[in-house]
Design goal:
Helices cover 42% and strands 20% of the residues. It has helices at 14-19, 40-52, 72-84, 114-131, 152-163, 171-181, 185-191, 223-233, 252-276; strands at 5-8, 27-30, 55-58, 87-93, 96-99, 102-108, 136-138, 166-170, 197-203, 206-209, 212-214, 241-244. The strands form three sheets. Strands 1-2-3-4-7-8-9-12 form an eight-stranded parallel beta barrel, surrounded by four helices. A hairpin with a 2-residue loop joins strand 5 and strand 6 (102-108). The radius of gyration is 18 Å and the shape is globular. The relative contact order is 0.14. The structure holds fe (ii) ion.
Length: 278
Amino acid sequence: MKGSVGIGLRRDIADEVLSSDIIHPDFIEFAPENWMGMGGYWNRIRQRAVEKYPVSCHGLSLSLGSPEELDWNFIKDLKVFLDENKVTVFSEHLSYTKSNNAHLYDLLPIPFREDAVDHVADRIKKVQDFLGRQIAIENVSYYTPVAAEMTESQFINSIVEKADCKLLLDVNNVYVNAFNHKYDAKVFIDQMPLDKVEYIHMAGHEQIEEDLIIDTHGKAIIDPVFDLFEYTIQKMHPVPVLLERDYNFEDLPAISAELEKLRSLIKNHWEAVHETSK
Ligand SMILES: [Fe+2]
């Protein structure tokens, strides 16, 4: 899967991804929560997808930053799902979605604090021990930092080191945060533990105010995010790259063209470097 391009398997485009000649990913990504325990038609779609493509999984509900105990029933089911679907990479958001049994259905920012590093790293280690694999944590977009006592890059570096986990680097999220919080995206990329990156996300976003971008996954990737992607991949080893698209699938040829653009950038940078170093 290294240096390959994939797309999330959404129900809106499942038929096209499985059957049509319009779109050609190298692999697909499941949100396991959307497919676990599914019977009938959608279970058959999942099976066909697994037969046709390598699969990665991007979790939604581990809620690594929550104060309460991890949901072990869910994690047991998750382990079975990852094994059954021969999942190569499993990732989760560096955020939380639950508090006191309330599912908040949003990715909330964890305070960038020393005690949060200890808490989250400990939870990641427990999950990794149980699953028998390293997981990749994703830098999320956030709209206000909460009670920060360190920078986001220090926070991410500390957790990756302490938990001995991998990083899912979402390049669009870096761009969105850099724009909203007014810092230099390339400097942030330079501060990331790039040798620990296992997977990359690319996506579109929406600028809703002069000074505010929302990470929507519903529009085409803009050129400055492609530029940041090129900047990033020149500094690191090949990993799988996923195009995140959650809705607005009407123009599938345009989405397919985005995949091809990612593929060609990967070819230019990763394969060229690989060839010259042989
Ligand atoms: Fe992402």
